[in-house]
Amino acid sequence: MATTKTSEAVKQLHHLSAALKAPRIIEAAERLADTARDAGWSYEDYLAAVLEREVSARNASGANQRIRAAGFGARKTLDDFDFDQQPAVRQQIAALASGGFLAEARNVVLLGPPGTGKTHLAIGLGIKAAHYGHRIAFATATEWVTRLSGAHRAGRLAAELTKLRRYGLLIVDEVGYLPFDQDAANLFFQLVSSRYEHASLILTSNLPFSGWGGVFGDQVVAAAMIDRIVHHADVLTLKGASYRLRNRGIDSLPSIRAETQAN
Q: Model-level pTM?
């Protein structure tokens, strides 16, 4: 009789988990049943354990979907980053990895020479954000401007900026690698302004803020943009030679030598 009742209960669980579109519930229920009986769990403990596994699985699945949709060129995690090469930012990154900056609509700016790990850290923080339930979009500064230019030509720039405000985090990589004309600079300024005190940005740049005026072709626009970015921001500076040049007999890149001589 007990076996028959158990069999009927299992069938009912299969039916209910299918109706809820939660097939993992039946897997967790069957896997935990013997453990619950042997350990003398209460019904409440058993139910909580089953549902906890379903929620964890859904969160992981959702995070993977958000990571795939983010547009990362490669999946780079903070666990894979070599902090021995950048020990000065270890504690700051650890604090940012908690995701608190997203709830506060704070920005993160990663400055430093090429090859020091700025993009890796930006993607790593983006992946963390995905696991906290935030939608992310990643692109280079040039790609963002191209996207906004297309929306502007189609007469839907305002709608595009509104759409992007629904993302918890936008990552803007490689600010300063290519100069912008005035129209591009204005579009980029609108992107920054639309997210000011509303949602977070992560920006990476190989230039100090003093060099941004040349990128955007206008010191006034650059100053206004920097003001909005850094008002609520964590600014991290990475140093050293490019990791891509290690063990290749090359001491530094021309841009690094120029900055060193200027200082």
A: 0.77
